Amino acid sequence: MASSSYKACGLSQRVAVVKILFRTVSAAANPQPKADFLKGEPHRKHPGMTSLNTLRLPQELQVAAQSVIQKAQVTQLTDRCHKLINYLWSRKRMVEDVTLRQKALGLEKELWEKAMQKMGDIDEEALRNQIRKRVLSELRQTTYHWNSLKYDEELGVVYMASRLAGGFAAVTRALNEIKKRDPSFAPQSLLDFGSGLGTVAWASHLHWGDSLKEMVCVDSSGPMSVLAERLLKGDEEEAEPLFKHVYFRRFLPVSPKVQFDLVAAAFTLSELPSVKEREDAVITLWRKTSSYLVLVENGTKEGHQMLMDARDTLLKKQEQIVHDPRPARVFAPCPHEMMCPKLAREPITPCNFQQRYHPLPLSGHHECQTEKFSYLILSRTEPAQEGTEGLEWARLIAPVLCRTRHVHCHMCCTDGQLQHKVVTARKHSRDVYRCARNSDWGDQLPIILKVEKDAESDSE
């Protein structure tokens, strides 16, 4: 029966069947050794993969948060959560005084020139006053008015209901980069600046609970620290903390020589009003870092720009770093230390990533949500050799599009350029191709330089 159906096939179909059979037999007879960069791992778990499956809050944290929210009985909680999320996502940086002054001078000059074109006698003093009023009115209408958020107990509960799970997901994903790429790293001390609800402490405990001996959480908001401590105790006042050695403070440690293995600031830079305050904070945090500094912000243009400003500060102002002369090196997500290529393109788009998570089971929350965030990890240690000679790791900056026998990959490469590569087994090797098919947005992908150079010479 099979023989007759085979004979009924057209010539081209029979040739295709023979080719497939030949490839199968050849592969079975001559199995290909895996590339060195895989380090013995299967393609679906290759060393560049740092993305995570859909995350859930730790059970103890979720139960404690639900208990706090239930006891608070905040009116219109769902609506207030939506408004707060929209406000935080659309938030911009404060307009600096220098920028505002330049804008005012430019507008005043433009109005004055228009007035001078009119014929007739002009009362210059009256005209000057009129122009100033128009300039002030224009600036009030067009300038973004930045306001600091003052968290009382009720607003803290609203923030927890809307941002606890998403913030935990983003921080956990960022810290997983260190966990995966530097498995020998076992931090004993943590400093969390702008700790809020303590999500960094929970995420760090998830990754390094066996080694952490001291976690210092610094936040200027007393009510937020009280909420964080309630969560840590399971919302039972007399209970012992679910994990020990967590200390809540209002200010950073005074001594400039005190350092921590891991320093983090999640969604904190956006709470500082000026460029100068953000720069000073980043320099101070880096001075207190002995191994890794982790910064996380919303995945907006504003959040990404603040992280790039922090990156430039630490890479270009080494002379301001005292006591520890080891220079800053970019660990993630950038595979280079040049200017972010996304900032050089118009229109400017943020370099961001996403993490799926299960929100708190409250009214109005869907089963799964996606947290879009930007992050930056800087290290004092030498970068590990993550592959073999002739191979580099690029960062996937968009979802991977898998098609028949090829994969579309948008990547940020080690030469500081954005590239769109169509990865195939024939052109890039079977191992790289299978790694690409199993990778996701935010992972690293191995690029064999020899193959790339050969392809370029062939195209010429």
Automatic annotation (TrEMBL):
<dbReference type="GO" id="GO:0032259">
    <property type="term" value="P:methylation"/>
</dbReference>
<keyword id="KW-0408">Iron</keyword>
<dbReference type="GO" id="GO:0005763">
    <property type="term" value="C:mitochondrial small ribosomal subunit"/>
</dbReference>
<comment type="similarity">
    <text>Belongs to the methyltransferase superfamily. Rsm22 family.</text>
</comment>
<dbReference type="InterPro" id="IPR052571">
    <property type="entry name" value="Mt_RNA_Methyltransferase"/>
</dbReference>
<dbReference type="GO" id="GO:0006412">
    <property type="term" value="P:translation"/>
</dbReference>
<keyword id="KW-0489">Methyltransferase</keyword>
<dbReference type="GO" id="GO:0042274">
    <property type="term" value="P:ribosomal small subunit biogenesis"/>
</dbReference>
<dbReference type="GO" id="GO:0003735">
    <property type="term" value="F:structural constituent of ribosome"/>
</dbReference>
<keyword id="KW-0808">Transferase</keyword>
<comment type="function">
    <text>Mitochondrial ribosome (mitoribosome) assembly factor. Binds at the interface of the head and body domains of the mitochondrial small ribosomal subunit (mt-SSU), occluding the mRNA channel and preventing compaction of the head domain towards the body. Probable inactive methyltransferase: retains the characteristic folding and ability to bind S-adenosyl-L-methionine, but it probably lost its methyltransferase activity.</text>
</comment>
<dbReference type="GO" id="GO:0051539">
    <property type="term" value="F:4 iron, 4 sulfur cluster binding"/>
</dbReference>
<keyword id="KW-0809">Transit peptide</keyword>
<dbReference type="InterPro" id="IPR015324">
    <property type="entry name" value="Ribosomal_Rsm22-like"/>
</dbReference>
<dbReference type="GO" id="GO:0008168">
    <property type="term" value="F:methyltransferase activity"/>
</dbReference>
<keyword id="KW-0479">Metal-binding</keyword>
<keyword id="KW-0949">S-adenosyl-L-methionine</keyword>
<dbReference type="GO" id="GO:0046872">
    <property type="term" value="F:metal ion binding"/>
</dbReference>
<comment type="subunit">
    <text>Associates with the mitochondrial ribosome (mitoribosome).</text>
</comment>
<keyword id="KW-0411">Iron-sulfur</keyword>
<dbReference type="InterPro" id="IPR029063">
    <property type="entry name" value="SAM-dependent_MTases_sf"/>
</dbReference>
<protein>
    <recommendedName>
        <fullName>Ribosome assembly protein METTL17, mitochondrial</fullName>
    </recommendedName>
</protein>
<dbReference type="Pfam" id="PF09243">
    <property type="entry name" value="Rsm22"/>
</dbReference>
<keyword id="KW-0496">Mitochondrion</keyword>
<keyword id="KW-0004">4Fe-4S</keyword>
